[in-house]
């Protein structure tokens, strides 16, 4: 039985896969009982990964020695597949930004040449960031332990996220959520203005 709620967005994905690496990935998916099919058009080869009712398409560009998984945006609604793609990013030294939505916080991980460049957890007032050396930096609302530019960029991400939540609350006409998101947004915009002074 698969998890009920999985939403992982892979943005700006670029992974060069050798044929053995691609075979390993395919074997791993088949061992989890996925059905795999290929579909071709003039420039792109698509790997269709199917399990029960869900079908995901991974676009590959054909090269002589390897295939390049290249996509501006992939939405994956399956935890096994999402985890397999993240392992592929690390093993094959790929690039991508991975946003993992959970019922709790939102996690944003940036991969650069297979390494975790940064990892951000957005959950209310406390954020956790992991840098490429693996050390964790935590900060509360004062944010004094990070560089102002980093805080500013992280706040922009959180503002975007709150705007998205506000939009959903407006569509749902949920007045209490609308007010809650507006308060959070106002607080974030004030803080961002303060941080901007330090740049």
From TrEMBL:
Domain of life: Bacteria
Keyword annotations: Coiled coil
Annotated coiled-coil segments of the chain: 171-198
Protein name per its UniProtKB record: IDEAL domain-containing protein
